[in-house]
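Reading a protein record of the kind used here takes only a little practice. The record below shows the convention in full.

——
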Amino acid sequence: MLRTIREFWDDQRGIAMILVAIMLPVIVGFALLAIDMSRANNLHNDLQKATDAFALAGAAELDGSTGSWARAERAMATLVHNESNFSTSGRFTLAAGQPGGTANCNSAGNISWCFLKAIPAADSTQITAANLATYLADADPAIGQLETQFIQVTVAPNGFDAIFPASFISGNAADNSFTVGAVAVAGFVSGVCDFTPVFICNPYEMDANGTNTAGGYTLKQAVSDPAVRRRLIELRKVGNGAAAGPGNFGFLEPPAGVGNGAQALAETIATSKPIGCYESGHVSTKTGQNAGPVQDAFNVRFGIRATGGGFNSAVYGPASNVRKGAVPSSKGNQCPQFNQLTFNGPGNMGLPRDATTPYMNGRMGDGNWNLSGYWSTNFSSASHPSSWDTTKPSRYDVYKYEIAQGLVGTASTGGEVGTPANACQPPVTSVDRRLLYGAILNCNALEAAGNDLSGHSTNLPVEAFGSFFLTEPVPSASDDASVMVELVDVTGANGQGTLNSFVRDEAQLYR
């Protein structure tokens, strides 16, 4: 008997079954937990991907124009189709809706959303009900749509029933169920490439009282109205402590690798192949705003040789039409310097200024310029469109018509032609050299917020990127020298589309 008991005690056969029997509940529990985690993770992925898609679709419409809220809602409702699995509802389609685009926060279908003017600087700072008002766009769509830069989309939480019997451990049946949701924030990023490092203070910026000195027009209204767009604007350079205000201009930080000297800055303005890329919310002004040879950077576009030398390669060539109402004071087919030109002498006329300058404290004209005098002086035997007799064109329209109709080489009664002198660099035909491209800033508001636009300020928001037609050469390199321009186009919903090749628009996820 004793031997039998000892043999039984030492016998280890079948012990594995005992261990399995003991561990089986744990093994099954871990298996169920792994399945639940996988199901919950897949559900969250479905919801997060759908939320990201809704946010990106909505953000792509947030260009700051009227109707952008309604377009964002329409995009989310019609362009996004996502399914969710593994919730208590089984497979179902996530849907949005179109409440009308009149509220800065709304909900429809399975999602809710808020239009935001800003987001926290740190990703770790969540947007909650407690701090939402800090980032929320104005409730008035007329204001809120202009300042909206982001959209936060939240998918309604979905119920999830776990297989793992948590209630067996806790004794609470509710522990077997919970919800899974998702939140995404996306924004609209607009930028330009191949742009000159110039900023122009918005001539149509509203002041704190909602008025301006440009006849009450906004920038977007001005660019969409030909009668306003042809007004001549006198730009003056910011610098040496001069405050930036409507109609002033300055310089942006040049692209990396260009250099910081005045000559390097001038070259990036003068070249026909600029390499600068600028984002609408993050431009930086250049320290010092030193003028240097910037006058030459503008004037080489008119076939005027730089006074201090330089600009001697083909990328600094003049426009194909440099008519400016001036002939060299000395004989010969030279490429003249500015001081070698006689302007508006007998029989020569450049594009005239406006008859009166009632706007922007005398620095913006009324758009009424002497077309008949200009045409008879330069093209007395050529006809122009009859519509010009009733609706005055812009100077830029006339300039383009001269090129299109082969009138550039036609001599004025005083002998001037629009063709650059042979001694200058060959004309550039790949781009329009008489157009100046720049970032349009609301300088009053930026300086009121503490930014020094005559020095080095960073991360400045851009109202729009624009193009301006240079109507005449810059007379001197001094800080108070005037750059005379016509507004041609701006980026955005009211633009004319001529800047589309420069624009890089995209929606971007932020969190």
About this structure: The chain is about 25% helix and 20% strand. The two ends are 76 Å apart (CA to CA). The mean pLDDT is 81. Residues 168 and 176 are 9 Å apart (CA to CA).
